[in-house]
């Protein structure tokens, strides 16, 4: 099937080559060559030199080379691309006022959540702040359920009751709206990991803005004292809302802020760097050595949220420069193409499939009905017999069910 | 579960009594038990019953420390991940620093996640006025926590209340705030045979009629229940029979028991240690207005509360900021017009 498709493609390409004459022939010819390549022509894997991490209180760091198999590459590419397109679709739906309230988009940071997810196990735990859509997807919630949650429909992953900042699934604890509050929660999850003794770890994420919060330092202290298997991860995207890191922090070496806790500073735009660093960190925690801090240097293309255009505190040139030089998806794509792990067409096919998935999900998210009014009172408590909940006046009552 | 064992030992059971085992040929009679011992019995029994239950808090673990927001958040996170923490505050005044974790992380998460993430945690500690600890350490949080959907809030008075409610709270799959009273810790109460059993649980959301009466309903929670009973004894000598209701639970409040009582007595006096504005008494009065009991009232309901000031230090001032027996008697006589 593939051979036929590629053969057909090459015939199509040969047409214009003949018509254009000699000038474009070489490039056209090489395109034809690429088009008619088949499976067996791709490499199974390639090895890449990756940027070494800056280390704090560590003798050795993560590996400085990474092996990427073709299968892995395609998976990472598809996942990052899905998150990218999902976030762009959310932008669109927000501007159409179909999504309302808070919406903090993750485009630009895809290598972080994908690199982390592929380095850990599904039985490990993840908690983050409000820029959570990418993690929600990476942890297994389908795009349609994420978009339907954003549009507040009953098919949303929280039945429309949570919204953008409150999406959860097994071993993923949100989605947390209060800046920094998720960090002690993450250490608590790590405490449970240690208590149950199943060798699990908890990734506890926060931003460069939250990194200056008091409760984070309280948590560092207890996590270190109790040797909790907690990987503290600062996603440093250079701006806490509209405040640059230079204006916010006396020390911008976020990987050192854990003081007595060892740390790594990682190139967060390179999914392989993130993966290798996360593998290293997870191994460190699983060995019972206690917590570790990772700083992922990354960037968000959008403003802080949909109410922030994102250009009053940074220049368009800066954003454009990151896009052209450090985009995580482009970085991976170029690596794969240049090392014969995939073809341009193949990746384009993935793009098409992703677009289709997002369109269908958006269609679902805009047509699924809102939750029924009865849902209003449900899930106040867990595992509780039904009881009555008061509405806006004493005559309006809702039934509260624990399961619906 | 070696790690579990080691972690539980982080919270030494030195404060806890040894289990009350031993040979008994006949069932034990009622005995006197202090609230403190009753609480420790409850903790002891529940720790043994369920391995997932563990304690943490200020001055509970091996090291000194008060890292409030941090450890409260850690406790909530542990509950989200399947443990059943009992998180102790040295007093609930400190919980104000951690209140974001109690409300935004614990109380609301089950709802926001449409039931995906339950939070089976107990927050406990002394609440309200103590003796001479002044303004920053004397606030009553019944109204603050009672305000929030997603939480359960209990307020024990007797040793039976303390033991039964703590056990019920630990077994409940939802976040429960248990407001104890420091001045009651050392007070002995009679504990029935039934209450001494390992499975004795006081249901959350059910008030108890401590004393039956016909002329006036007194509703209180925590230490003021004792004051109401004292007032009732004194008033009985004057021929006024008070019905004293121990709320036991602030949220969900058992207003039905209060309504049934008011239907009988036609008069209502609420008593609490907290400040008057937006308090527990305010809520009771509003609900009585809205329900069938309104038609049975022969006089407006009356509230007895703490004085509307930050708690002063000097004893004479402090004494006059807390509802005393004489204040309750005065209120009863006012409402009965005697």
TrEMBL record, chain A:
InterPro entries recorded: DH_E1 (IPR001017), PDH_E1_Alpha_Subunit (IPR050642), Pyrv_DH_E1_asu_subgrp-y (IPR017597), THDP-binding (IPR029061)
Dehydrogenase E1 component domain mapped to chain residues: 79-373
SUPFAM superfamilies, per database record: Thiamin diphosphate-binding fold (THDP-binding)
One GO term (biological process): glucose metabolic process
GO molecular function ontology, one term from the record: metal ion binding
Gene Ontology CC terms: mitochondrial matrix
Top-level taxon: Eukaryota
Function: The pyruvate dehydrogenase complex catalyzes the overall conversion of pyruvate to acetyl-CoA and CO(2), and thereby links the glycolytic pathway to the tricarboxylic cycle.
Protein name as annotated: Pyruvate dehydrogenase E1 component subunit alpha
Organism (species): Gallus gallus (Chicken)
Gene name in the database record: PDHA2
UniProtKB/TrEMBL annotation, chain B:
Needed co-factor(s): thiamine diphosphate
UniProt keyword tRNA-binding present: no
SMART domains named in the record: Transket_pyr
Domain Transketolase-like pyrimidine-binding: 33-187
Signal peptide annotation: none
UniProt-recorded Gene Ontology molecular function terms: pyruvate dehydrogenase (acetyl-transferring) activity
Reactions it catalyzes: N(6)-[(R)-lipoyl]-L-lysyl-[protein] + pyruvate + H(+) = N(6)-[(R)-S(8)-acetyldihydrolipoyl]-L-lysyl-[protein] + CO2
Keywords in alphabetical order: Carbohydrate metabolism, Glucose metabolism, Oxidoreductase, Pyruvate, Thiamine pyrophosphate
InterPro entries for the chain: PDHB_mito-type, THDP-binding, Transketo_C/PFOR_II, Transketolase-like_Pyr-bd, Transketolase_C
Short name of any one Pfam family annotated for the protein: Transket_pyr
GO process terms (BP): glucose metabolic process; pyruvate decarboxylation to acetyl-CoA
Record carries keyword Oxidoreductase: yes
Enzyme Commission no: 1.2.4.1
Oligomeric form and interacting partners: Heterotetramer of two PDHA1 and two PDHB subunits. The heterotetramer interacts with DLAT, and is part of the multimeric pyruvate dehydrogenase complex that contains multiple copies of pyruvate dehydrogenase (E1), dihydrolipoamide acetyltransferase (DLAT, E2) and lipoamide dehydrogenase (DLD, E3). These subunits are bound to an inner core composed of about 48 DLAT and 12 PDHX molecules. Interacts with DLAT.
Function field: The pyruvate dehydrogenase complex catalyzes the overall conversion of pyruvate to acetyl-CoA and CO2.
Record's protein name: Pyruvate dehydrogenase E1 component subunit beta
Provenance organism: Gallus gallus
Organism taxonomic ancestry: Eukaryota, Metazoa, Chordata, Craniata, Vertebrata
């Amino acid at each position: 099937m593939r051979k036929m498709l590629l053969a057909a493609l090459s015939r199509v390409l040969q047409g214009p080559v003949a018509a254009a004459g000699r000038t474009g022939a070489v490039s056209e010819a090489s395109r034809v060559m690429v088009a008619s390549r088949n499976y067996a022509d791709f490499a199974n894997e390639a090895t890449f030199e990756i940027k070494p991490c800056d280390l704090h209180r560590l003798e050795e760091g993560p590996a400085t080379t990474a092996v990427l198999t073709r299968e892995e590459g395609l998976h990472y590419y598809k996942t990052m691309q899905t998150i990218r397109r999902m976030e762009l679709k959310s932008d669109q739906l927000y501007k159409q006022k179909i999504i309302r309230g808070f919406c903090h988009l993750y485009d630009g940071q895809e290598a972080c959540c994908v690199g982390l997810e592929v380095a850990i196990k599904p039985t490990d735990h993840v908690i983050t702040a409000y820029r959570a859509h990418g993690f929600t997807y990476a942890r297994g919630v389908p795009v349609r359920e994420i978009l339907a949650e954003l549009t507040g429909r009953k098919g949303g992953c929280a039945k429309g009751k949570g919204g953008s900042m409150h999406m959860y699934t097994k071993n993923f604890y949100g989605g947390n709206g209060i800046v920094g509050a998720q960090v002690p929660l993450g250490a608590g999850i790590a405490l449970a990991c240690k208590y149950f003794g199943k060798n699990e770890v908890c990734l506890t994420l926060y931003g460069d803005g939250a990194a200056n919060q008091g409760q984070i330092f309280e948590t560092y202290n207890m996590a270190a004292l109790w040797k909790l298997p907690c990987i503290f991860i600062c996603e440093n995207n250079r701006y806490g809302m509209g405040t640059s890191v230079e204006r916010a922090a006396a020390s911008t070496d976020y990987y050192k802020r854990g003081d007595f806790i060892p740390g790594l500073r990682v190139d967060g735009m390179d999914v392989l760097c993130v993966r290798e660093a996360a593998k290293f960190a997870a191994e460190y925690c699983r060995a019972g050595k206690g917590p570790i801090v990772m700083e992922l240097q990354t960037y968000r293309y959008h403003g802080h949220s949909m109410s922030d255009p994102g250009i009053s505190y940074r220049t368009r040139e800066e954003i454009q420069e990151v896009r052209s030089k450090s985009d995580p998806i482009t970085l991976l794509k170029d690596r794969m193409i240049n090392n014969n792990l995939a073809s341009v067409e193949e990746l384009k096919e993935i793009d098409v499939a992703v677009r289709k998935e997002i369109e269908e999900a958006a269609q679902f998210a805009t047509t699924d009905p809102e939750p029924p009014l009865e849902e209003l009172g449900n899930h106040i408590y867990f595992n509780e017999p039904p009881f009555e909940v008061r509405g806006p006046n004493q005559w309006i009552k809702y039934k509260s069910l624990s399961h619906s | 579960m070696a790690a579990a064992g080691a972690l539980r030992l982080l919270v030494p059971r030195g404060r806890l009594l040894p289990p009350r085992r031993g040979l008994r040929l006949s069932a034990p009679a009622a005995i006197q038990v202090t609230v403190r011992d009753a609480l420790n019995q409850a903790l002891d029994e529940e720790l043994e019953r369920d391995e997932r239950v563990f304690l943490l808090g200020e001055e509970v673990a091996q090291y000194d420390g008060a890292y409030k927001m941090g450890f409260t958040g850690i406790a909530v996170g542990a509950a989200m991940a399947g443990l059943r923490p009992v998180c102790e505050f040295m007093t609930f005044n400190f919980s104000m620093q951690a209140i974001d974790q109690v409300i935004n992380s614990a109380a609301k998460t089950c709802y926001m996640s449409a039931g995906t993430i339950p939070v089976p945690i107990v927050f406990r500690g002394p609440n309200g006025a103590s003796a001479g600890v002044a303004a920053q350490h004397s606030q009553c949080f019944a109204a603050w926590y009672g305000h929030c959907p997603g939480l359960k809030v209990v307020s024990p008075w007797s040793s039976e209340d303390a033991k039964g409610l703590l056990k019920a709270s630990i077994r409940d799959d939802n976040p429960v705030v248990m407001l104890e009273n420091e001045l009651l810790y050392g007070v002995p109460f009679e504990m029935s045979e039934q209450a001494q059993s390992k499975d004795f649980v006081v249901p959350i959301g059910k008030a108890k009629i401590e004393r039956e009466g016909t002329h006036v309903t007194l509703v209180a929670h925590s230490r003021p229940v004792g004051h109401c009973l004292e007032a009732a004894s004194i008033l009985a000598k004057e021929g006024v029979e008070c019905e004293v209701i121990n709320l036991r639970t602030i949220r969900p409040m058992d207003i039905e028991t209060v309504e049934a009582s008011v239907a009988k007595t036609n008069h209502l006096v609420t008593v609490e240690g907290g400040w008057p504005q937006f308090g527990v008494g305010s809520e009771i009065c509003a609900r009585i207005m809205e329900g069938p009991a309104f038609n049975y009232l022969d006089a407006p309901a009356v509230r007895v509360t703490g004085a509307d000031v930050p708690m002063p230090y000097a004893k004479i001032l402090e004494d006059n900021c807390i509802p005393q027996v004489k204040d309750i008697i005065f209120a009863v006589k006012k409402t009965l017009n005697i």
